[in-house]
Every structure is written in C-alpha cells, then in structure tokens.
Amino acid sequence: MSDGELVDRVFLARVVEPGDEVSGRWVREWGVREVASRLRGGGDALPGVSEKRWGGLLGRARVADAERDLGLAYEAGARFVVPGDAEWPGQLDDLGDARPIGLWVRGRASLRMWALRSVAVVGARACTEYGAHMAATLATGLAERGWVVVSGGAYGVDGAAHRGALGAGGATVVVLACGVDRPYPRGHTQLITRIAEQGLVIGELPPGEHPTPSRFVLRNRVIAALTRGTVVVEAAHRSGSLVTARAAQRLGRHTMGVPGPATSSPSAGVHELLRGEATLVTDAEEVVELVGDMGELAPDRRGPVLPRDLLAPAARRVLSALPGHREAGVDEIARGAQTTRDDAIARLYELRSLGYVERHGDGWKLTRQAMTSLRGGRGPC
User: Fold this and answer.
1) Do the beta carbons of residue 119 and residue 142 sit within 8 Å?
2) pLDDT > 90? residue 1
3) Which of 85-89, 100-104, 108-112, 235-239 has the lowest mean pLDDT?
4) Model confidence over 131-150: pLDDT tens digits?
C-alpha cells in the first residue's frame, strides 16, 4: 500500500465511526483515495447519507490530522495495520462493509499470525468468583496448548481471562473500544500495559479517542471476527458479551458457553445461548476440540473405574442376578442371569475367589464388600 493510501485510511479512521457500513460501502465502491478526497473537499454528499450527517462528517474531516495521529501512535509504540498489509488478519474481511478501515496495534507480535490460532473468552464485568475462576482456568488451559486468548480488557471475566493467559506464559490480545494509547478501564492500566509488552493491544479508534457505549458494542464484532470461536463464561440477558457471541454465530464461528447454576442470573444469558446453537464447554480441552484441527479431541469423560467394571460380562450378569439381602440357589441365579446351571456355578466360584460372593450350604449370597461395590463405593480389589 502506498504512503498516500495509508494516510487516507488514517484520515478516514478519524472521520468515520467503527463499523459504519455506509462508509465501508463507499470505500468498496469508490476506493479509499476518492472517499478521502470527497470528505476533504467538502463537496456534495456521497450516496446513502442525509445532508445533516454529511455535514457532521465534513466537520470531523476539517479537524482530522492523519500525520498527527501517526505521530501520536509512534510515540505510543503503535502501528496502523490496514487491509492488504502482510499483518492484516484476512478473517476480518468476513465483516464485509463493516470491516475496520484499519487497526492500531501495540506489541511486537504479528497480529495475523496470532489471530490464526485464537479464541475469544468474554463475559460479565460484574462476574461471580465462579465466573472469574472459570475464565482464568480456561485461558490458562488454552495458553498452555498454544492458543491466543482474545478479550476486551474489561473488569470481571475479560480481565480474568487476560491474567490467566499471561500467568501461563501464553499469548493474549486485548481489543479496546478507545485509542490504544489510552488504556480503559483506568483500573486495568497496569494489566493493559503488560499485555502491550507481552501480547498485543489493538483497536480501531485513533490515538486519544475515548470509549462510548456504542463503541463497546461495535468493538465486539472485531473480537468475534478475529477469532476461531467465542466462549461466553458468564452473561446476564442484556450482557454485551452476548453481542460478541451472536456476531460470532452470524460469521459462522464456533459459539460456546460455560454453564453456571440454574438459579444464577449472571449465567442466564449463557444458558439462553446454550438452548440455541451454542455448544456447552467446561474446560480448554473441550474448546480446542471445537476450534482446533482434526484429531484434537477432548478426552472421554468417565466416572471412576469400579472393581466390578473389570469383570467379564458373563460374570457381571451372574453377580447382578444375586438378591441383595438373602441367599439364592443356583437355579434361581442361572434364571436371573439367563444362562445354564453349569455356567452359573462356574461364575459363582470365580466370583467367590474375587471376594464378591460366599457359599452358604446350597445357597449363595453377596458379601458385604460386594454390596458396597454394587452401590458405587469401594469394592474388593
């Protein structure tokens, strides 16, 4: 990309709001140079906007200073990455006309390379201890498996996810709804500064810009598009993290949710997602099974192996045929196990050698150890 087009994109990033599909269509149909020229020249409105809105854009254009923004970014250690650059993540193009004009990036790593193997972990700001624990645990597990954790840097789940990845010595990316030189929230200044040193801090807004409610919402589409999937840890019905999840669904990304207690209002939005197309996950292995390569499967979830599980099927059937609190004859046991008398006798002696049954004259009875094993407790070895 030429220096002139880069400057034009920096100029447009100052003039138009993130996610503005009208200006995105202008760029697609007219080109960056023409759109920037029309805004600088103050001529007739481009199609799709009212005179009032066009006047607002011209007012912004008059005070926009691309060279100044580039200088401020340089001082903050940031660069401007645009479509067509080697570092541009191609998956952001899935946003269509809502694709960012460009992204301001702080950090040494390649955004494109990190985004190829990334997962978003998002959730409530006012999360519970359970939510913070699950976010940190998931992020730690993902980082240990070589995945990049992406989140929004907010209090609660976002912060826990970033800290979990950093604590594991892994990679994390924070996507801000303000200038990358102005960490927000202020209480996370130290955390975001650390991410800039060890990971990446990115955002659409020029240096010095402040966040607004609408910018938070629009920021979430970048988180969804940048990653292979989005995990929502805790979210009430009106949580902004649900916006990220729904954007991920529209883009064809994996959407996952960590369940909480059925009575927990901070998990109500997650449960609503899980009733739809989202997938329930409980740890990093289950997340990777969805977003990872073929063969990256989570282990089978099984309860403890009990001693009776090691018995041959025929022996288990005979054992199950014995009454719980009385003796039984061989004929009764054989009928219950649906086998012959001779086979039942052979299995009973096998079970007696293992400590499951004992003989009382012509009858057979379960031992106390077998009773414990059949209830699911510790049985004989």
Assistant:
1) yes
2) no
3) 235-239
4) 999 999 999 999 999 999 99
The dihedral sign for the CA sequence 129, 134, 137, 138: negative
Helix H or strand E encompassing 256: strand 254-257
Residue 240 tokens, joined? 């902004």
The closest of 327, 227, 332, 242 to 287, measured between CA atoms, is 227
Task: With cut-offs at 50, 70 and 90, classify the pLDDT of residue 305.
Answer: low
Residues 55 and 167: their CA atoms lie apart, in Å, by 49
Which residues have a Cβ under 8 Å from the Cβ of 272 and sit 6 or more positions away?
237
| Residues facing 357 on adjacent strands | 366
Q: Which of 116-120, 152-156, 204-208, 303-307 is the least confident region?
A: 303-307
| Phi, psi of 122, rounded to the nearest 5 degrees | -130, 165
Cβ-proximal residues to 234 (8 Å cutoff; 6+ apart), any chain = 123, 124, 127, 128, 130, 131, 134, 156, 157, 258, 260, 264, 266, 267, 270
As a whole number of angstroms, the distance between CA 221 and CA 203 comes to 12
pLDDT of residue 295: 52
Band of pLDDT at residue 3, cut at 50, 70 and 90: confident
Say if CB 107 and CB 196 are below 8 A apart: yes
The per-residue pLDDT for range 46-89, each reduced to its tens digit, is 999 999 999 999 999 999 999 999 999 999 999 999 999 999 99
Report the alpha-carbon distance of residue 363 to residue 370 in Å, rounded.
16
**Radius of gyration (C-alpha) of the chain in whole angstroms:** 31
pLDDT score recorded for residue 373:
63
Q: Are the CB atoms for 131 and 137 separated by under 8 Å?
A: no
Burial 276-291, CB ≥16 within 10 A → b, else e? eebbebebbbbbbebb
| Cα gap 288→347, rounded to integer Å | 45
Checking DSSP bridges between strand 363-366 and strand 357-360, what pairing results, if any?
antiparallel
**Position of tokens 């997938």?**
279
% helix / strand / coil in the chain, to the nearest 5?
A: 50, 10, 35
Question: Distances from the Cα of 190 to the Cαs of 15, 125, 194, 207, in angstroms?
Answer: 30, 18, 6, 18
